[in-house]
Amino acid sequence: MAPLVTVVITTYNQEHYIRKAIDSVLAQKTDFDFEVYITEDCGTDGTRAILQEYAAKYPERIRLNLREKNVGISRNWYEGLCAAQGEFVCTLEGDDWWRDESKLQKQADFLRAHPDYLAVSHTLLLTDDEGKTYGTLPDDKRILNADATMPLFLRGITYSCTACMVRNIFRTPDPAREAYVTANRSIADFALCMLYLDGGRVFVTDEAMSAYRVGGPAAEHKNYNTRASAVKKYADFLDVVLASRSYFGSRYPFTRCLLAGTFFPLIDRIKYGGLGPFLKEMGRLPAGAKLALPFYFVGRCFGLVWAKLFGKKEAKG
Fold first, then answer.
1. Cβ partners under 8 Å of residue 49, min gap 6
2. Residues 6 or more apart in contact with residue 29 via CB below 8 angstroms
3. 3-class secondary-structure state, position 121
4. Which is it for strands 146-148 and 201-213: parallel, antiparallel or unpaired?
5. Rounded to whole angstroms, how far apart are CA atoms 179 and 250?
6. Dist CA 119 CA 200 (whole Å)
7. Average pLDDT for the chain
8. HSE-CB for 21 with a 13 A CA cutoff
9. What's the Cα-to-Cα distance from 263 to each of 156, 224, 269, 282, rounded to whole Å?
10. Res 312 pLDDT > 80
11. In 77, 85, 167, 218, which residue has its Cα 20 to 30 A from 284's Cα atom?
12. pTM for the model
């Protein structure tokens, strides 16, 4: 009999953190059965040995996928979702952990009580290896204890895909969906957030049931956010949004999303250098976004100045 929930843990070179991640899942208290599917992306440290140790200790609970070739974050994540046997699926990255032993129970209870919802998410506590915390995300009150919506998402009011428990929509193979989610090697969450919002309602609980580890400068503490340059992050952002435009066609407007995602990185490059490579990437913007950018740029600058002068918070997006 299939478990009600599959927990997909993705990991790559996280020997310092993976035990805490797995332990936080195994500590879950539920009135239903759940499985743990751990997919490891052919790392070079001691992560794999740790996974094999856990799988041997909990053979009835843990399934392993130990890759012989590195495929990148997005494919590792997506194929993990496709391997899920549960009616509901949730994910955890190997350097993060769950703070609430009732996380699975709370989210499963929500989905069972609200059949009109596709997914339920929650906030994340931002923390580092020294135990310092930096608040929670998302923090926009419009989606806290409320629904995330496509119009808000495309204005930059995002929710956490990694915090979601979602009904298992991945059982049926879909080559177009696979190509979309894996279009960028490093970023899959934008596409998954889009798919969930397109497929149904998504509720965001204002409860930080997970901890998101902020990467540090040391090699063993680095993650995508600390490894990738600003230009690389912007190029990846363009990849996922342009892939979304291709996948969804004219169903959703992406111009404002592209402009909002360009504005602050462009300001930073003007202030801190590296403008040339950034402008080269901006050349990939669709014609409509290029035409609208000067007007959007002036409007956002005016909004920032106005907010600073009169002490009001500038509206996002």
1. none
2. 101, 102, 105
3. strand
4. antiparallel
5. 18
6. 8
7. 95
8. 25
9. 12, 21, 10, 11
10. no
11. 77
12. 0.93
